[in-house]
Amino acid sequence: MKTNWSKIVLSTVFLVWVSGFVLVPEIEAQIPISSAEDRQALMELYRATGGDNWNNNSGWGKRKPSNAWFGVQVDRKGRVVRLDLQDNNLTGSLPSSIGNLSELRYLNLKQNQLTGNLPKEIGNMQSLEFLLLSGRTFDPHYTNDHHPGKEDESTNEFTGELPAEWGKLSRIQHIELSHNRLSGSIPDTWGNMTLLRGLWLNGNGLTGQLPTALGNLSNLRNLSLSHNNFSGEVPLEWSKMVQMRFLRLNNNSLKGNFSTSFANWRYLNLFYLNKNNFSGEFPSFLVSGKLTNLATIGLSHNKFSGPLPDFTPLLNANIYVLELDNNDFSGPIPPAITRMQNAVILAFGWNEFTGQLPQIGWSNLRHLRFLRVSDNKLTGPIPSELPDNPKLKWLWFQNNEFTSADPAAFANLKSKELKEINIGGNCLSYEEHIAPAVAHLTDMNFLYGNQSEKKDLKIER
Asked: Which of 55, 115, 256, 278 has CB 3.0 to 4.6 Å from 302, enough for a Cys bridge?
């Protein structure tokens, strides 16, 4: 029998065309990754991070992934959607195959001993919303300030650069990578993470300029880039981050100032720039009257200069912290500060302020713990109305040109937490302004030396 090869070839082509997956790699790539491949990725993570020595590895390796595996949560289809192995003694480096967990929404590996580079393959995890690899012991939330803490709670030590491929994480909302040894700059591609609400990269060795592309992150609420080595200016395009609430840029080498366009940050609560090289006048957008949620202003240890503006618009906000130490501000201290009834810290030290302190209204500050006006050129009397309240701890008036003080005002302070009053380095009379208060201030440091009339007088009780 004669074989009709043309019919056989045509039939084969037809079958390939109908089936649609035999020879076409683009279509083959669309086949969903199975729970079996989730299992493979998890077991590779287990082996790469010393799973036999984890604090808890119950269920791992038994059949397919399930909620019985410690730290694992699966959906109805058996796909892994949550992986929480925080504080579980993971060691070693993350394998690239972790990026195959394509349905994962939440990944938390904080408080472990992980090292090595960050896998670029994490950028393939298109369902990922929370990426928490290093930081505080609790989860961040974009509506609250995620304070970096007084101590470093991170125990992972990732190195290398931030992967540009992570810019493909189209659903990502939170990235926490605090206190590692990361280097390089923030990739421009990260400006594509348009659903991002919180980004914590503080405490690394990141360098370069702040990317203009991050201005595309119109949903960003919480940005912490403190304690790095960033330089240059804050891009004007960042004023388009209209949801910004908490901004920490302190402890870098940033410079420049902020235009009035940043008044678009009308939800701003915390603005912390301490220890940089910012210069020019006090940022005027802060006193635009539009920032009614503003609570913390930190401008200390920069190069700001000139007189302070009228602070009356700040009374529309709810100021807790106002730190202006160690700049070149001059002129009088605005009297509106005595009407900031919720203030906890008012710090104006090491500037060039002149004139008298406001004399009345200090008793309104019922939450104040720290008042610092030291090392300026203030004159006249130290206010006889002091901010006495149960939480008051420090009053620093030293190294000015004050000429009088009411000793009864110091002696009558009732705070049991009061640790120090310093009025040294002024032009006060020991007999008239100091001695009558000494006998009453027995539970704190009352420092009063280096006056124009008496030198090196100091007691500690």
From this structure: 278
Residues 6+ apart with CB under 8 A from 314: 286, 287, 294, 336, 340
The partner residues of 231 in beta bridges, in order of sequence, read 209, 253
pLDDT tens-digit series, residues 189-211: 999 999 999 999 999 999 999 99
Tell me which of 41-50, 354-363, 439-448 is least confident: 439-448
The pTM score is 0.88
- Asked if residue 276 lies in contact with residue 300, where contact means CB atoms within 8 angstroms, the answer is no
Domains of the chain are 1-31 (no CATH), 35-246 (3.80.10.10), 257-331 (3.80.10.10), 343-461 (3.80.10.10)
Residue 366: is it exposed, middle or buried by C-beta count within 10 angstroms (0-12/13-18/19+)? middle
Q: Give the whole-angstrom CA distance, residue 110 versus residue 90.
A: 9
Q: What is the dihedral of CA 356, 358, 360, 363, to 10 degrees?
A: -120
